[in-house]
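Treating backbone geometry as a discrete language has practical consequences that deserve illustration. Part of our work consisted of pairing the sequence of a single chain with a tokenised description of its backbone. What the numbers capture is local backbone geometry rather than side-chain detail. For completeness, the protein is quoted in full, as a sequence line and a line of structure tokens:
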Amino acid sequence: MSDNIFTIKAYNSLTTDVLECIESLNSCMPEYELYYEDEVQADADVFFAAWDGSRLIGFLSFIYVPGCDEAEITALVAPDMRSRGVFGLLLNEARRSAALLNISHFYYAPVHTSDNTPDTASNPSPAYSHSEYLLKLDCNNYPAGNSDNDSGSALYVGLPVPLQEQLAAASLFFHEDEEEESVFCCITDSEDNILSSCFLDDENSYICIWGVETDAHHRRKGLALLLMQCIIAAALTNSNDNNMPAPVFMLQVSGRNTAALNLYKKCGFLTESRIDYYSLHS
């Protein structure tokens, strides 16, 4: 409506009072998680708020990854202020800021309604973009035997024979990373060169795997598979030796990374949840 006058403000970071308003707004739809981290390093604004006087009636943010030409947005408008152009005003401001960061494309995860269908009212002709997966491996269901082979040869099953021989002297190392508050895990060759690595976070009820990376010169050789198998075997050995419950591993992976998705499923990871993302058209 043309007589609606709202104030749109853009932010590079959020103050405590604004954060409180955002949390209050988000409480009207607790099943939807707005992104409003208060510490962001960006060359442009990534948070956008619509105010009606001192009342926050809408919020939009996008998740900025340096060097990427697309970004995920989260947005929410107060229920009594919907269909009044608030979202459009926020989106226009966000696009202007995104252009400064060379971001040309937004995608989003629509809110699901009570019948579990996506609400695409704000974007009536959505185009599917990609899916993000939360994967889980309960080691109670992991094939027995992998953790009991002292030579580790069972871990190389499925790898090319020359690579099995090359990795016969490979070692698995765990290192406490105080800066990341994580455990750095890596496979090295006989010359102590890191071949493949990742980080492990103990979340009490499960172990989170993240930051999986393989040396550029050793990719497509099955090293990431070996890393996962070694980690799982080491965790099983530790739980067996200390009469502890079998570990549970969880990780997130994009459906765009088909190689990684197939790798984790080959290791026995199952889909715990999936989020479908859609393109937000101009």
Observations:
- Residues 22 and 258 are 36 Å apart (CA to CA).
- The longest strand covers residues 127-138.
- The chain has two domains: 7-108, 134-278.
- The domain at 134-278 is CATH 3.40.630.30 (Aminopeptidase).
